[in-house]
Amino acid sequence: MLNIYNTLKRKKEEFVPLDKSNVKMYVCGPTVYDYFHLGNARSFIMSDIIRRYIEYKGYDVTFVMNLTDVDDRIINKANAEGKTSDEIAEFYSKAFFEDIDKLRVKRASVNPKATAHMSEIIALISKLEEKGFAYNVEGNVFYDVVKFKGYGKLSGKNILDLESGARVEINESKKNPLDFSLWKRAKTGEPYWESPWGNGRPGWHIECSAMSCKHLGESFDIHAGGNDLIFPHHENEIAQSEAVTGKPFAKYWMHFGFLNIDNEKMSKSLGNFFTTREVLKNYSAGVIRLFFSQTHYAGPLNYSDSLLDASKKGLEKVENLIYRINDLNKNSNSTNNIVFDFAPFYKGFEEAMDDDFNTSKASAVIFDFVKEANRLLDINSNISNDLVEQLKGFLEKTAQDVLGIIDLNQKVETHSNKVLEEKLIKLLIDLRIQAKKEKNFALSDKIRDELKELSITLQDSKDGTTYKISEVH
Ligand code: AMP
Ligand code: ZN
């Protein structure tokens, strides 16, 4: 039984999807004005793991992650670089997909873009206006928060608390400081669309209400995003959607803790960030995913190289077991009666994940499994192919398919292949030295050139010859 901590109810609840045959999940995606940082990556990866585990439980998941492609930050960047907002959004959307693919985040069922949903957005604002939840001040349309009875139910505050503590946009035309923009009148130099209120562009919150409704329906199962989105973004999404439909919007609200640096949220505006691209140069997707998995998604997590290094060491243990198993696979055609009890590992993994996606406990179960499997291989040199497949199967279902920390389909060289490769290259290097000594330059050049063809470059220096293998694409 899967339990999820629901921000809306402030407690863990049993997960019962609205439609058993298809779980519907919406995650607030990036504003495409720059490369995303590792804090954003935490939210993307944890929502991916949640989706993957729900799939592991046997459900089909319709997973929607929007792209905000009209926003002040995009407009500012476009102006600074002498480009159009569209050019900026397109460039960074492409970069976003490249980076999430590298992180092994599964592609969403749909990645709707705000600019492609203008008619839905305008229709939604019109309905809010008709129902008396919105007011127009000279082409700027605002949501009238006091009209919505449940305002504050997600963040657990009443309107008066929110008014005193809120950092909300100051605008003389608003009736209440908490009222927020649904439609913004066009300013010179900004992209705009035609609407019943004149030319302008939508506010950020209405985009998510319109796109989630279009792709998942008026009510759906899970809505997720970083902690920073609880108020005002998600609070406002609820106010907009429920005011129009009169139905509950998302059933379970999930929020990810921040990735911090020195206990401060990693963010573009504070300047204390690393882009995911930069981090991927030093750490693999598997290491980054394990680093995030080792802390529960809801808690804070401090970035540090030493924690990433520790995850790297941890991941090597899992990878070394895969090398070991792959080596075995080739030699073994025995059928023996060695038994390995997989049940406690599957049970441990599922119990951890069923408890509000406790990936930290789940990864500990994988490490226990690695230890036990190594012990088994230490004492038995002859393992049946069947058992080999079962050992791999556990890693495939848990470490690969759910946590995504390994990829068994990636060409993994076995230890013996690597050792053999090194020995053969060294042998050729020795033969080339011998040929040179005998002044057989035709042969020594042939060895160098043909190795080069195989992407193996020899480098001569006074200390001898070394080699470098470049990646073949
Ligand atoms: P943005 O592109 O700023 O709209 O953010 C995209 C997603 O990343 C949202 O779900 C944010 O809540 C989330 N996010 C932003 N900063 C962090 C952080 N430091 N740690 C975790 N999630 C974050
Ligand atoms: Zn959103």
Tell me what the structure shows.
By secondary structure, the chain is an alpha/beta fold. It folds into 3 domains: 3-279, HUPs (Rossmann fold, 3-Layer(aba) Sandwich), CATH 3.40.50.620; 306-400, Four Helix Bundle (Hemerythrin (Met), subunit A) (Up-down Bundle); 415-469, no CATH class. 47% of the residues lie in helices and 14% in strands. The protein has 15 helices and 15 strands. It has helices at 38-56, 72-81, 85-102, 118-130, 159-165, 204-216, 230-245, 276-282, 285-293, 305-331, 343-354, 359-379, 385-400, 415-437, 441-453, and strands at residues 3-6, 11-14, 23-27, 61-65, 134-137, 140-143, 180-185, 200-202, 220-226, 250-256, 259-261, 264-265, 301-302, 456-461, 464-469. The protein has a 4-stranded parallel β-sheet with strand order 4-3-9-10, with helices on both faces. Strand 11 (259-261) and strand 12 (264-265) form a beta hairpin. Helix 11 (343-354) packs antiparallel against helix 12 (359-379). The longest helix is centred in the last third of the chain and has 27 residues, at 305-331. It is globular. The structure holds adenosine monophosphate (AMP) and zinc ion (ZN). Zinc ion binds next to loops. Adenosine monophosphate binds next to helix 1 and strand 9.
Q: Which terms would index this structure?
A:
globular, alpha/beta, Four Helix Bundle (Hemerythrin (Met), subunit A), Rossmann fold, binds zinc ion, binds adenosine monophosphate, 4-stranded parallel β-sheet, 15 strands, 473 residues
Entry summary:
Helix content is 47%, strand content 14%. The chain has 473 residues and is an alpha/beta fold. A four-stranded parallel β-sheet has the order 4-3-9-10, with helices on both faces. A four-stranded antiparallel β-sheet has the order 5-6-7-8.
